[in-house]
Queue: 2 jobs
Job 1
Amino acid sequence: MLKRHFASGNLLRILSLLGDSHLGPCRRIIRIRHHHHRRNFSHFSSSSTTTSSTKPADSPPRSKSDARGELRSWQIHAYSGIDDLQASTSRIPPIKSPTDVLIRVHASSINPIDIAMTRGYGADTLNLLRGLCSSEQSKGPFGLQSLKQLSLPFRRGATTIEFPLTLGRDFSGVIVQMGHEARGKHGLRVGDEVFGVVGVQRQGAHATYVISSIDTIRQKPKNMSFLEAAAIPYVGLTTWAAIRVTGAFSNLNGKRFLVLGGSGGVGTFAVQYLKSQGTHVVTTCSSEAEALMTSLGCDFVIDYKMQEFSEMVKHYSPYDCVLDLSGPTNYKKSLETIQYLKAVTGQYITLSPPFLSNMDKFGFLGGAAKNVGDLLNSNYQSWNKGQSVTKWAFFIPNGAPLENFTDLLQSKRIRPVIQESFKFDETKDAYKRVDDGHLRGKIMLDMEDYVNSN
Ligand SMILES: NC(=O)c1ccc[n+]([C@@H]2O[C@H](COP(=O)([O-])OP(=O)(O)OC[C@H]3O[C@@H](n4cnc5c(N)ncnc54)[C@H](OP(=O)(O)O)[C@@H]3O)[C@@H](O)[C@H]2O)c1
């Protein structure tokens, strides 16, 4: 029964929602740092990783660097935080699935999940997902390895298949090779400029090349630079997942949203997306972010540090939805806003559920049980306070909404908000910047130096 359930791919689909669980001439670039153009790439030493080419690619690599098969990436070798990030050079990995594509990365972004993953966030669950995915890919009898993994005590270090691990969930770049089933899908060909995401169980995009599924990329919006385009996919698809999938809002026109924490990477996209759909948006942020949030179209901006915070939130209520992007440390305070939701139909949707941290702490079965308990408990509270519903939302790697975003980006109804951009050599500084918090939009990695030098 369990095996049948797995074979159907249901567990894969559920797990792939986790953590997997981030214009035009633009664009609000608040501050872009300009750095010396370093060409010695001194961070990158050769690693012992070797790979051999496999079948399904439809054309040989094209640039000199491609021909050499060199992949430069930032990787962790243990879950000991940002300091463990190391630059390495290895062979470009082969495409293993016929629906995969190899992309030369021009730009990528850094998200809080990258920082959390350097510390082991979700490691056990993601390892299970990696194991399940490799079982599926090999098309061997599915179940034995996975069931064995499931029955193992879910302890950190029980599996080590993830290292060295490259982080980075979204990117923009150029298609270099395609698996045979990927060719022509979604109108994409070798040489096309694309943007998209890579599933959280895969090697990430903080590298000069990334392998992604054809189904999680689309043509890059024509009016955007690579840097601007790479600021959209992860936060956009997270927003889509929270509002359209978890919230199941089909028509947002005239709805009232309270967005807690609108000033960060997800928030600066989410409020613009909601406004583009005719939604009434009230957001909370620090006082110094108020001007930015107003410029993004918010109807009312509330400083979350002000004394009258609750009265202000109440003043603009009732809301159809509270979208909580303010992070896990504010969860308890954020939950208080459920009393200002519309009764019965109101929804509190958080992007910081304890799902993966419960799995980390209590193992697969214990964590699953704790998750059910936590979700029931928060729903009990929200039902008591306002007869509303509490839901947990996760990033979903799905290319289709990117087409919708492209329309909005090309018509300039949404613009990327980039706080700061770092060169690829400065990746560690970029991670530190995200870890420092208080972000106003996105922190980006600009890899053009590497593209142009090869
Ligand atoms: N479940 C998922 O799949 C998923 C996917 C993406 C993101 N997330 C989570 O969603 C959250 C938002 O992501 P992000 O990328 O937008 O993070 P971010 O870029 O770090 O932004 C967080 C923003 O919230 C503000 N903030 C902090 N405390 C606040 C409070 N009490 N009230 C209002 N605003 C507050 C911060 O600025 P100040 O500190 O200066 O106020 C910052 O602008 C993060 O916790 C992230 O981990 C989850």
Job 2
Amino acid sequence: METDFLLIGQGLAGTALGYRLKKSGFRIQIYDQAESNQSSRVAAGLFNPVTGRKMVKTWNADQIFPEIIPFYKELENLCEEKFLHQQSIYRPFISIEEQNEWMGNSADDSFSDYLEEIVQESQSEFLNDPFGGVKLKNCGWLDIVTMLDGMRKFFGEDLKKEWLNLEKLKFEDEFWNYEGLKAKNLIFCNGVAAHQSSYFDFLPFAPVKGEILEVKQDFSPDYIVNRGVFRVHLGDSVHRVGSTYTWHDLDHGPTERAKNELTERLAGLVNQPIEAYVSHKVGIRPATKDRKPFLGKHPDKQNVYIFDGFGAKGVSLIPYYSKIMVQYLVESTSIPQEVDIARYFNYI
Ligand SMILES: Cc1cc2nc3c(=O)[nH]c(=O)nc-3n(C[C@H](O)[C@H](O)[C@H](O)COP(=O)(O)OP(=O)(O)OC[C@H]3O[C@@H](n4cnc5c(N)ncnc54)[C@H](O)[C@@H]3O)c2cc1C
């Protein structure tokens, strides 16, 4: 059997890239074993244009945000399932000074696409927001598991739910051969596993472990709350609460320390006891040292590519960068320097 593109991994990255290649008329074959460390199946799925302690626009927001809603809506139509939840994010102020600062930001045109409202008084007795807060728009969350499962059905025979053994890959007669399959091109979309492979171990990945809880609490507004910790309502008073960031201890086990940390942070945000803990999950984010994704072509190996390194922001980055990657593969357009892996070729 012959294919144009053999993709390793069907997390968010492999799904988006595989879909766009298929849509462009190419034959694809994806291998994916959704093992426990898959980042996409653990993630909260938030997309948020204004982030960080200092609340600045996220990197490249004006380019990447216009792609998010249309892309996931297109996949929803394809799968006939709902997984895109557009919701505002409410971030309480911690002081009157911060409230004033945001009143100033509201006059700044560059925030107008993302700023819904400055609220000057508490939104609820169940929230710790005595100074009000800022409501952001163009935000929400993606139910990634539903999306990935829907896309598994869409890919059908184009997806093998198996581990691809890299040792068995052989480049012969201009094709990558794998157990009888002949592929013209090979693309690594395999998250942190790319870092452990001899193909891309030279790239400076900086994997980050994250832990996340699901808890029951009655207070269920129609917005996401986010300050120190985020809380997203999934339905039936179950909320996703996260996440932690750890650069060491990258085993996959959940820890009591992270559970306590998230519980304490939640108590600082929502004035209501947790009724029950529903789940506690762990994943490893495929983050990179310079916090920019890895796109491009292997420097020596023929027709080998990578689409990876989306760190903590895969949901917002992948719709835009999968488009860039497909244009590069199909029309030979260039990849923006800041995400092209060629930025590291001098260090090999
Ligand atoms: C706790 C936590 C919270 C997060 N919250 C958010 C959030 O709110 N918003 C956001 O945008 N991002 C969030 N992220 C980050 C997000 O999960 C990632 O950016 C994104 O999912 C990465 O997708 P990926 O496809 O590159 O990697 P992955 O999801 O890891 O997918 C890689 C896939 O490749 C498979 N694979 C690897 N090697 C092989 C092989 N040899 N053969 C077959 N299959 C293979 C793996 O099993 C896996 O299925 C969070 C992550 C964590 C851990």
